[in-house]
Design a protein that fits this description.
Chain A is 75% helix and 1% strand. Chain A is mostly helical and 468 residues long. In chain A, α7 runs antiparallel to α9, α14 packs antiparallel against α16 and α16 (361-375) packs parallel to α19 (436-454). Chain B has helices at residues 2-18, 24-46, 84-102, 110-128, 132-141, 143-153, 158-191, 198-201, 204-207, 212-229, 237-245, 248-270, 279-301, 306-330, 333-368, 379-382, 384-397, 405-420, 424-446, 462-480, 483-496, and strands spanning 55-66, 73-82. Chain B is mainly alpha-helical and 500 residues long. Chain B contains 21 helices and 2 strands.
Chain lengths: 468, 500
């Protein structure tokens, strides 16, 4: 057994305990945040160094898996510094928990066994229940309770789905799915897994907890839940649907084209009438999930273009655009939530942004970058992400889905641009929190969002590694 | 390579102009002046012996992927290139930036002029790109500074109108993008390579091989985007609000800059594949052009706000481009070349007409604080110079010979007679309509007894006079010596029409 591939995971676990040990002596948030960032960066580099074609048991360490691992580390790294502002009290526990959470996510990134995927996902979930309630205010506890109850419901559906999957295929290992023994069981498994992970991914009928939880949680935790947590569920679904339902399983296409359309339309339309900023972003993250699950529809699609474009080609494009969307989404959506730290209030309304550009031009500019990126305007990551997604849909022959998605993307202009207008047209005496730990993460995230929109080679590189 | 150098210098100038504060206006003007001189000199050298092809090509492979069995290739190129048409359009983009900046108030600060420079950069970049991905990026990026200009410096209902403008044009852009993707996908099916090169995707031989459904879908996307920007008849509702609400510099940029994008899209991008248009579509386009011409004329007649009126006039002038686009597909030989180069010339010359009209109106508005016709009367008694310029702009708008507007409208009218016959009478009717109401408006606002409610008014000062004089002179230059431009356009048109 070759342990060097696990170093990145082991480093995170050990650093978690060290951070708890530091906390016994002194609970200084700067030292702890610095240490946690260092641990995450070391782990990041170890993942990069350990990327080879290597399979052990049901774990795999090739470029595809490492890419997701890097995304997850980045999604945690994003909230380390902003969390210094909105987390009160036990910093050692908080940072140790984020490290353990990242550890769980890395395991999920590398494994292809349903049981391990399930356990690692629950590892993340349990920690996020705690993190949402970390400040122990009324809003936190309410959000956490809702999240806990609904998420547990999703978990039970997941267990059912995985059990039926085992009945149908006689394996938990996604690599060795071969003959189907019980095809009705496979359909049941699909339905339960969609419901279970649909709760975690907050797609249409299962989204309401997310709105309340993102609204109630501390800003940086909302940032994590709507990016890292969501992308984790997304990646697991991608693995399950791509490898587990390989037998031209059309239900995947039916379910996800319908769910995708409903999700994005619901998210965009609901966001229009909202005035609470964190709820707007929550609905926007629902809508973004709607765009993302269109890739699953593409994976399950196998009719029209089969005679002209081989299915393996357009699936490769679809997976590449999913991977690209995931990384861009983390920075733009996470950035939008981090920007909420600028406002010194618990309940953040859209008017609280008035006059931001007068107080700090660069912070306002960063916020505009996130909004433009979420809308899909060129020179930001969101443009390339969204339109490569539509491109892969068209390559796969699903042009009508792309048209619906584009009309949705037009609706979203209304509420994203309302935020831009509020932040610089209206005059107001609002006070903003412009501490360095709020501002600089924001600038860095905005810079990354722009960089992702200019570096075209990332996408072509991803097409190369998008074969699981 | 010099072209690339030009764009890099331009980009640096744009970025610097954002941070210059009070000096931004002066800096932008100097930078744009130098860039214009450089680019005009460059085009004189390059286009001396022009043969209608794409010249000064520059191609750089930004990213590519080839699968191990060579079945998939993805290429993302950054390509530049100039034709006779785009060369002139880049010059107009520079000139319209100068016009819009020169009439802006110096006190508005770096952001205002930076945004105008950015728009100009987007326009110039759009015309030079020979790759659809970058074409689209520039097509879309132009909207962002205009959005900020309107929403920050605009007048009534600026927030609502800026979003309306953005969404309206955004819809068109997105369908344009879907069309590009569709073409790219079918290019892959044929040649197993993904590319966004305009020359590859917009070729007759390739497009005649793709299924009809995909072909028509792509036509729909392209035409929707271009007709929204132009704007053409049913898709124009953003026009008047946006022109009225935006600051005058922005209006000059919109009417002189953004509509040329649509003209370029139709005649520069779309034209090579018009051979595949079904007959019905061509007639539909011609009818749309005719309806727009007359409809905007009629709507313009009933406006009481001079800015709105000129906005509609500008739109009806641009419907000549639609007519030229439609009729030139039907015609053959030299008529087609004449028609096409007339359409291109109209796109090009419209910049001078619209800039003059809006700038003259701006200086009148600055003093009287009203643009309502009924609020103005007898301005000529108090401001003879400003009134003269405004009258000149009106004459230019109605297509007076020796002014910029004439040549394009004349050649389109003459050559469309060859294809649509007696229906040309509708064009003539539209022209008369425009002339009638513009002169009527001039009579009501400039002549007659002076409206004493306006109080004492000062005429143009020296710098304002110089600005308007400069714009008028350039308009007259285009009007009396059109050969310089028309020749270039006709060579390119002959190449497009298959005569060279």
């Amino acid at each position: 057994m070759n342990y060097e591939y696990f170093y990145s995971i082991i480093v995170l676990g050990i650093s978690g305990f060290i951070s708890l040990a530091i906390g016994i002596k002194n609970n200084n948030k700067k030292i702890l945040a610095g240490f946690t960032s260092l641990a995450l960066i070391v782990s990041f580099l170890l993942v990069l160094a350990g990327t080879k074609n290597y399979n052990i048991l049901t774990m795999s360490f090739n470029s595809f898996d490492s890419y997701w691992a890097l995304i997850f580390i980045a999604s945690t790294l994003l909230i380390i510094v902003p969390a210094m502002n909105d987390i009160k009290g036990r910093y050692d526990v908080f940072y140790a928990l984020t490290l353990f959470m990242t550890l769980s996510m890395l395991i999920a990134a590398f494994t292809y066994n349903l049981i391990v995927l399930f356990v690692s996902f629950e590892g993340v979930s349990v920690i996020t229940y705690v993190l949402v309630a970390f400040n122990r205010t009324r809003r936190n506890l309410e959000g956490s309770l809702k999240y806990f109850i609904i998420s547990t419901l999703g978990t039970s559906f997941n267990i059912l789905g995985i059990s039926f999957f085992y009945l149908a295929t006689k394996t938990f290992d996604l690599f060795s799915v071969g003959k189907i023994f019980y095809s009705e069981g496979l359909l049941l498994a699909l339905v339960f897994i969609i419901i279970g992970f649909g709760f975690k991914l907050a797609i249409f009928p299962m989204q309401q907890w997310a709105i309340d939880t993102y609204d109630g949680a501390p800003n940086s935790i909302s940032a994590f839940l709507s990016t890292g947590g969501k992308i984790l569920a997304y990646m697991i679904l991608l693995k399950i649907l791509y490898l587990g339902f390989v037998h031209d399983y059309n239900y995947v296409f039916y379910f996800f084209s319908i769910l995708g359309i409903l999700t994005m339309t619901y998210g965009n339309l609901s966001a229009l009438s909202q005035n609470n900023l964190k709820r707007i972003f929550a609905y926007s993250s629902v809508a973004q999930a709607g765009y993302m699950v269109l890739v699953f529809a593409l994976i399950g699609f196998s009719y029209f273009p089969a005679n002209v474009i081989p299915k393996s080609t357009f699936i490769r494009f679809g997976i590449a655009s999913a991977m690209f969307y995931a990384v861009v989404y983390i920075f733009m959506q996470g950035g939008a939530y981090i920007a909420m730290n600028l406002i010194k209030k618990d309940k953040i309304m859209i008017e609280d942004l008035d006059g931001l550009s007068k107080k700090s031009r660069l912070s306002a500019f960063s916020l505009w970058i996130f909004m433009l990126s979420l809308t899909g305007i060129p020179l930001t990551g969101g443009f390339l992400a969204k339109y490569f997604l539509f491109f892969s849909l068209i390559v796969g022959g699903l042009w009508w889905l792309a048209v619906i998605a584009i009309l949705n993307s037009v609706i979203s202009v209304f509420y994203y641009f309302r935020i831009i207008l509020n932040s610089y047209v209206s005059e107001s005496d609002n006070e903003f929190n412009l501490a360095p730990s709020v501002k600089y993460p924001l600038f860095a995230t905005a810079a990354i969002t722009i960089a992702l929109g200019v570096l075209f080679f990332i996408y072509t590189y991803l097409i190369g590694i998008a074969a699981i | 390579m010099l072209l690339l150098f030009f764009f890099i210098m331009f980009l640096i100038a744009v970025i610097v102009s954002f941070f210059m504060g009070k000096n931004s206006k002066r800096f932008s003007l100097i930078a744009l002046g130098l860039l214009t001189v450089f680019f005009v000199a460059y085009s004189f050298v390059k286009f001396y012996n022009y043969n209608g092809q794409i010249i000064s090509k520059y191609n750089f492979l930004l990213a590519s992927f080839t699968s191990s069995n060579k079945s998939i290739t993805v290429n993302i190129n950054f390509s530049l290139g100039l034709t006779g048409f785009t060369d002139l359009l880049i010059i107009t983009a520079l000139i319209v930036s100068i016009f819009s900046i020169v009439i802006g108030d110096r006190e508005k600060g770096g952001i205002f002029f930076g945004l105008l420079m950015f728009t100009g950069y987007g326009l110039a970049g759009l015309f030079a790109m020979r790759n659809f991905l970058f074409f689209f990026i520039f097509w879309e990026i132009v909207l962002v500074p205009i959005f900020f200009l309107i929403s920050r410096y605009g007048s009534v209902d600026k927030e609502k109108i800026s979003i309306k403008f953005f969404i309206y044009t955004h819809i068109g852009s997105l369908f344009l993008l879907l069309s590009i993707f569709t073409l790219s996908t079918y290019y892959f099916i044929k040649y197993s390579i993904f590319t966004f090169q305009i020359a590859d995707l917009m070729s007759l031989s390739f497009q005649s091989a793709i299924p009809l459904f995909a072909l028509y879908f792509s036509f729909f996307g392209f035409l929707l985007a271009f007709f929204i920007k132009l704007p053409s008849f049913p898709l124009h509702s953003w026009l008047a609000d946006t022109y009225t609400s935006s600051p005058f510099s922005g209006t000059v940029m919109l009417s002189g800059g953004l509509v040329t994008m649509a003209g370029y899209g139709l005649l520069g991008i779309m034209y090579p594949v018009t051979g595949l248009f079904p007959r019905v579509l061509i007639y539909f386009i011609i009818i749309l052009g005719l309806i727009s011409l007359v409809y905007f004329g009629l709507v313009g007649m009933f406006q009481t706000n001079l800015k709105r009126m000129i906005a509609y006039t500008s739109a009806s002038e641009m419907s000549f481009v639609t007519i030229a686009f439609g009729t030139s597909v039907l015609s053959t030989g030299y008529v087609r070349v004449f028609d096409l180069s007339g359409g291109m010339f109209q796109t090009f010359a419209h910049v001078f007409v619209a800039s003059l009209a809006f700038s003259a109106l701006y200086f009148i508005y600055k003093r009287t604080n009203t643009m309502e016709i009924y609020g103005l009367r007898g301005l000529y008694h108090k401001m003879p110079r400003a009134s003269t310029f405004f009258l000149a702009s009106i004459l230019a708008s109605l297509g007076m010979p020796t002014l910029a507007g004439f040549i394009g409208e004349f050649s389109i009218t003459v050559s469309s007679f060859q294809t649509i016959g007696l229906f040309t009478i509708i064009i003539v009717f539209g022209l008369i309509l425009i002339a009638a109401y513009l002169i009527w408006a001039a009579q009501r606002s400039l002549f007659g007894f002076y409206n004493e409610k306006l109080g004492p008014l000062k005429d143009l000062n020296r710098s304002e006079f110089t600005i308007l004089f400069f714009i008028l002179i350039s308009s007259i230059f285009v009007g009396v010596y059109p050969t310089l431009f028309f020749k270039l356009l006709s060579i390119y048109a002959a190449h497009l029409g298959g005569l060279i």
